[in-house]
Every structure is written in C-alpha cells, then in structure tokens.
C-alpha cells in the first residue's frame, strides 16, 4: 500500500520506535489501520528481546530491526533516514506503547500539509481532552518549557510531547542530524527552531503514559539535565542543510 493523502498527494509515513512492546504494538498498528489506512507504517524495533518485530511483521508493516538497543534517538533517526530514502513528504512520530491516539493523526499533520509548519507538535496543554500531568512531572515540564522559551524566544506549551509530524525539509534534516545523546523531545524542538524552521502546536488528546521520565523527584533531576542540554545546544552552530524539497500542500 502506498500512502497518498487524497487531497494533497503527500505521502505520509508513521514511524513507531518500539522496545519490548509486544504487549501493545499489535493494538497500536490496528488502531492506526482503522483511522488512517492510507498512511504507511514502519516500526523501528530497537533491539527488543520479545516478539515486537514478529507481531509487527505479521500485521504487514515494514519493520527495521536494530542489532541492539540504540535508544530512542537512534531509533527515530533510523526512521527519518528511511523516510528520506523512500521519498515521504510527511513523517509522524508515534509511540509504540499506546499513549498516542490514531484518531489524532489527521489533525496533527494538517499544519504540515497546509505548508504552515515544518514541525507540528501534538500539545496536551491546549485544553483538549482530560490528560493530567502528575505534580512532579508538571514541574519538570514547566521548567523545560521555560528554558525552551528562553533559548528560542518562542513559547512552546508542550515541548516534551513526542507526538509530532515533520515536513520533507525536517525529514531530510533529521536523517543527517539528530542528538547523539537524546534526552527528550524538547531538544528536537530547539534544533528545529534554530534552523529557522517553523513549529506549530495543535491540540491533541493522549492516553496517560504508564512510565515517564519526568514523573518523580528523579524525573525533575532529569528535567534539569534536559535544560542544561538545551542551553548547550543554543551555543552550538547551526547545522548545514541540503537542498530543500517541497511538501505538497493540501488543496482548498
């Protein structure tokens, strides 16, 4: 199946990084097939020791299997490399643990198809749904949001959201450049904005995550590490970009 957005001609790839998600990956893929059947799916199996890859293959999606666990950054960059090589116009980051909702994908990619943004972030902070942050996680997220604003001079309400869509320009950029010591999605937001790309947030409903890196006192310490990484990233030079390719715009 070739993913073609009927109104725009844009080929859309959903990238699912997964590590030991055998219990959920099948349901995640089935949900995507139900809501966005025209979009292609690739699962990046990040060295799982369970049957994550086998379940995904049996559902008929492309599986890229890492020889060992690279971490979320390595898995995502692999997905972007695949999207760039295969000529996709839009890539959607989608968690393999069931937190992200397939019925939110169309709304997420709308700013990309309209040509308004290079990256769209599904924001849990824009008053849609009943997602609630635990107290310590909220503190960490607010701290990261503050530092992101200081570093980029842009107010991003939910910079830690991993539910994102990217344009062809961003796909090509990420296929060549991605944080080697990936800590959080906020770092990617800073990289994109520093390259002069446009970021837009869209309201998104999500399910609560069972595990979070920003959900305890230890998580707040992790948030401080993320903030330090954002400040360091701000001092580095911009990355060179290759020739830009256009994302087909949605008509009407």
Short description:
The protein is α/β, with parallel strands linked by helices and 252 residues long.
Word description of this protein:
It is built from eight helices and seven strands, in the order βαβαβαβαβαβααβα. It is of the alpha/beta class. It is globular, with a radius of gyration of 17 Å. Helix 2 links the parallel strand 2 and strand 3. The two termini are 26 Å apart. It has a single domain, classed as Spore Coat Polysaccharide Biosynthesis Protein SpsA, Chain A. The protein has a seven-stranded mixed beta sheet with strand order 3-2-1-4-6-5-7, sandwiched between helices.
Helical segment count: 8
**N-end to C-end Cα span:** 26 Å
What's the CATH superfamily, by name?
Answer: Spore Coat Polysaccharide Biosynthesis Protein SpsA, Chain A
Shape: globular
Query: Which structural class do the helices and strands define?
Result: alpha/beta
CATH class descriptor name: Alpha Beta
**Second rung of CATH, namely the architecture:** Alpha-Beta Complex
């Amino acid at each position: 199946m070739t993913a073609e957005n009927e109104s725009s001609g844009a080929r859309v790839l959903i990238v699912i990084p997964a590590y030991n998600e055998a219990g959920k990956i099948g349901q995640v893929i089935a949900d995507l097939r139900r809501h966005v059947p025209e979009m292609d799916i690739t699962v990046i199996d990040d060295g799982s020791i369970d049957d994550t890859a086998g379940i995904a293959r049996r559902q008929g999606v492309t599986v890229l299997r890492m020889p060992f666990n690279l971490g979320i950054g390595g898995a995502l960059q692999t997905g972007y490399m695949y999207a760039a090589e295969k000529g996709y116009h839009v890539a959607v980051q989608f968690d393999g643990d069931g937190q992200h909702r397939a019925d939110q994908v169309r709304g997420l990619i709308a700013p990309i198809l309209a040509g308004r943004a290079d990256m769209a972030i599904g924001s849990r902070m824009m008053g849609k749904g009943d997602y609630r942050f635990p107290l310590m996680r909220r503190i960490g997220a607010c701290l990261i949001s503050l530092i992101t604003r200081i570093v980029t001079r842009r107010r991003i309400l939910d910079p830690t959201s991993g539910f994102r869509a990217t344009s062809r320009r961003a796909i090509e950029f990420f296929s060549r450049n991605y944080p080697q010591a990936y800590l959080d999605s906020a770092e990617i937001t800073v990289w994109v904005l520093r390259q002069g790309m446009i970021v837009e947030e869209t309201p998104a409903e999500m399910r609560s995550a069972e595990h979070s890196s920003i959900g305890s006192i230890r998580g707040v310490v992790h948030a401080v590490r993320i903030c330090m990484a954002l400040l360091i990233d701000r001092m580095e030079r911009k990355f060179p970009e290759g020739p830009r390719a256009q994302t087909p715009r949605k008509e009407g």
